[in-house]
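Hi all, posting the design record for the shared folder.

TITLE: backbone redesign
STEP: 1 of 1
STRUCTURE INPUT:
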């Protein structure tokens, strides 16, 4: 453990803890889907009990409404919700396994089961432009590729966990949990004006992170100890202009650059740290006992 002192005042403190290991996601076990195709034609509505008639695929055209009833898990080859369409899952579907999960622009998905949702995909989970996915409980995603297009809104009433090889968060997207948020990815890309927030704690582990313009990363507590970003790789960590970061940034193998007009509060560790014009770095002394432990 060591501290950085300037003119007798502590401005940083770090512990040489080991970085988390980010393992590649592969070979997600998806049992062979058994059943039939649920298809909803253009501008039509349909209600299906998935326990009485288990589907193998779900696909809807544009402007459709599909209601799924029954407290059964889903095993699918693919799930695709069309443009401006609605999927309402009224039963307690605790687990959804599929080879491919995608939504069109302006789609709305609602999972009303109180147990939340565990979503696993062998290839990708993709949320279309300005789409909404609302889960009434804890929400977990496990997939090689996770993509949210611009203005997409994934929502949850509980803890949120995202595990991916590659996670790409689009322009002006908010990844948020009313409880705690955990993200693990080999590569994490944040579009401009994105935010990563939670009511309680946030833990983000990645090998590489690419930041967009004016991103926001914090816990609602505004305590830096409640937001931890750990980056294992050696690629430069460039916080772009007007980024607001309130937390602990631990990237001991990489140089860190804090962009023009950015506001960084908390603690940062890198090979070197540079501040661009009008950027600020404020060390929070409340971290002394949290991260500087012998």
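Okay, here is what came back for every position:
SEQUENCE:
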């Amino acid at each position: 453990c060591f501290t950085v002192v300037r003119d007798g005042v502590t401005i940083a403190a770090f512990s040489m803890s080991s970085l988390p290991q980010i393992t590649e996601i592969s070979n997600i076990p998806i049992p062979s889907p058994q059943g039939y195709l649920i298809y909803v034609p253009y501008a039509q509505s349909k209600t299906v009990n998935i326990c009485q008639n288990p589907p193998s695929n779900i696909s809807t055209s544009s402007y459709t409404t599909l209601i799924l009833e029954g407290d059964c898990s889903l095993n699918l080859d693919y799930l695709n919700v069309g443009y401006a369409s609605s999927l309402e899952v009224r039963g307690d579907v605790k687990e959804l396994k599929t080879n491919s999960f995608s939504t069109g622009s302006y789609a709305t998905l609602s999972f009303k089961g109180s147990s939340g949702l565990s979503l696993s995909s062998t290839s990708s989970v993709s949320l279309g432009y300005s789409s909404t996915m609302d889960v009434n409980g804890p929400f977990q995603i496990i997939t090689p590729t996770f993509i949210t297009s611009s203005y997409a809104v994934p929502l949850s009433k509980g803890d949120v966990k995202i595990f991916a090889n590659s996670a790409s968060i689009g322009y002006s997207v908010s990844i948020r949990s009313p409880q705690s948020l955990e993200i693990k990815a080999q590569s994490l890309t944040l579009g401009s004006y994105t935010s990563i927030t939670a009511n309680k704690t946030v833990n983000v582990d990645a090998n590489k992170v690419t930041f967009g313009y004016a991103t926001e990363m914090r816990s609602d507590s505004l305590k830096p100890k409640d937001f931890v970003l750990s980056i294992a790789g050696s690629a430069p960590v460039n916080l772009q202009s007007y980024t607001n970061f309130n937390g602990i940034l631990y990237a001991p193998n990489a140089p860190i650059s804090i962009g023009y007009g950015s506001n960084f509060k908390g603690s940062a560790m890198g090979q070197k740290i540079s501040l661009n014009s009008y950027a600020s770095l404020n060390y929070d002394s409340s971290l002394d006992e949290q991260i500087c432990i012998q």
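COMMENT: Helices lie at 288-291.
Let me know if anyone wants the other runs.
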